[in-house]
Amino acid sequence: MMRLIYSGAQVFDGVTLHKDAVLVIEDGATAAILPTSDAPSGKVVALDGGVLTPGFVDLQANGGGGVMFNDETSVDGLRVIAAAHAATGTRAFLPTLITDTPNRTRAAIDAVVAAIADGVPGIAGLHLEGPHLAVAQKGAHDADLIRPMTDRDVAVLEDAAHRLPLLKVTVAPESTRPAQIARLARAGVLISLGHSDCSYDTALVAFAAGARCVTHLFNAMSPLRHRAPGLVGAALDSCGISAGIIADGVHVHPAAIRAAVAAKRGSDRLFLVTDAMASLASELQEFRLGGRRILRGEGRLTLEDGTLAGADLTMPQAIQVLTQEVGVPLAQALSMATTIPARLLSGFSATASGFRAPFIYLAENGDVSSPEETAGMVDPSS
């Protein structure tokens, strides 16, 4: 039996951040998290600070490695995107198709099914962000492709839900009837509200019908006002509703993130997403989305008119924003990148219960590596 003892870093088990602890790996599988004083014999991998944590979970990944999923709805495209996200510490993600045509939507479903069958690592399902959104809150989505949901759309999504481990669909109540939301929820679809100008009361109707999530909280939605709480107010006021948030300091001000964290703390439902585009893990300075130029600069991605178009963000960067600018404790920030989103995935756990989640090493400077990559640090005297 090959036993490796990882020491010198804090260890996060998905819930608790252990200090003065070791991570024990036996024959490539996580075996235990123990106090340093109880470490068994084995080859010691000495780490210089940082934290060992389950790999990140990202429920909104539009692209990576120079590839946009909308442009490369294929197994090969997904393989490039998956590798790019793995390089930044993400071990489970939902490829996300931004509002597109019915044919492209069906191609995306087929591509994800095929990629999972081919064993492309990390793909946990599919996120369809649109096209059933509100034009008034379209953001970077193509207004010409946004449309109301039809019965035919419902049937396609029901079939996809049966073929995929998880299907997440972002919709606006303006383009989706409560009965459609209820039908899709019964089929196992994770319905998320987003790109919507809906009122607080309308959002509650959608939640009652079966919507369980909100897409990139604060962005592209009716804001929180003292007499009209909107979708933001409904999301923060509803304990059973999960919400993703883009913590890059650009999409949402740190003070607003702090307020959201405080509002959702009791329900443990706020999680991180990257909303990453083709630029993730690449040197791209510009690329295209549906024929439109996306420009990269100053930590943001925009259309030529300045509209934000996805995010220039990795999970380690989001964690850094949470801990350094928002003031979130490291354990909570890590939970928002692992355990909380993992609860929404079928058959995946980012907790250390049973040690099913693969661990990564997050160094003090934000660099990410796998335990296998750090094994070169083995203490030869051990």
UniProtKB/TrEMBL annotation:
EC number: 3.5.1.25
Binding of Zn(2+), residues: E129, H195, H216
SUPFAM superfamilies the record matches: Composite domain of metallo-dependent hydrolases, Metallo-dependent hydrolases
Cofactor note: Binds 1 divalent metal cation per subunit.
Any GO molecular function: metal ion binding
Binding site for substrate: A140, N219, A220, R227, H251, L308, A309, G310
Needed co-factor(s): a divalent metal cation
Keywords from the named record: Carbohydrate metabolism, Hydrolase, Metal-binding
GO BP: any one term: N-acetylglucosamine catabolic process
Record carries keyword Ribosomal protein: no
Annotated InterPro entries: Amidohydro-rel, GlcNAc_6-P_deAcase, Metal-dep_hydrolase_composite, Metal_Hydrolase
Family that this chain belongs to: Belongs to the metallo-dependent hydrolases superfamily. NagA family.
Protein name per UniProt: N-acetylglucosamine-6-phosphate deacetylase
Organism the protein comes from: Antarctobacter heliothermus
